[in-house]
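Run log, item B.
One chain of 287 residues. Sequence copied directly from the ordering sheet:
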Amino acid sequence: MCTRCESFVFSAAPASHASAWQPRRAFLLAAAGAALAGPALAQVSVGNASMARNLVPAERIETAGVQQYGQLLEQARAKGALAGDGNAQLQRLRTIANRLIPFATPWNTRARQWKWEVNLIGSKQINAFCMPGGKIAFFTGILDQLKLGDDEVAMVMGHEMAHALREHARARMAKSAGTGAALSIGAQLLGLGQMGDLAARAGTQLITLKFSRSDETEADLVGLELAARAGYDPQASVSLWKKMAVASRNQGGLSFLSTHPSGPDRIQKLEANLSKVESLYREAKRS
């Protein structure tokens, strides 16, 4: 039986590496006051975050995400499928997360309050996700079957983190309820009436929520920039989706793609943005 994987603290860089953190610190400080639409110094262009998300309190969606994440871990633990802290693949994931997370806050100031957590679940499914509130999970299938290198893992992780940072789940839940209903539910969740059931429904839907094509493009580009700033090769975004395409053809569809619709222009859009983040990657590698 695997041991429990607890939340972990992302420590600051040691003094000997202070110089390496100067460019990152400058980016964070400069963008600390940026709106949720995105940081002022962003290199990719994704426009404003959906205003629909404001119909649903962020705290409720984040709470639902934390609850569902906990339920998933308990189920995995009961089956002996939850990786323990000493697992090499889990340590690898957490190392990559440590490098990405410092660049999250400029994209969403709420991320400063999130208790980030990364876990690994033993499953043949090719899947990964990041719940609202910064709860990340990878299934072993996506690492083993696609044989992902660190740069490619960073692209997957950055993409999933971007969904949470851009609050796509929050916006989708609001949109799915309809404007009038969302307003009513939002009022209930804010304590202005009888408690609605949005949080409960969110708790069962967040993992399987299907994002729109525009959400996917945003997540691709924001994740690309997060990974590049953390020193991961932007070219890996292209190799990742090529591997996804091959695996999908060979296996008749993937669970990852069922909730992340892929269009023929996905790789083209990523390629069109590589030059925008290449300098960030080079700077990070020099640091």
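Observations after the first pass:
- The beta strands are 117-121, 128-131, 135-139.
- The radius of gyration is 18 Å.
Flagged for discussion on Thursday.
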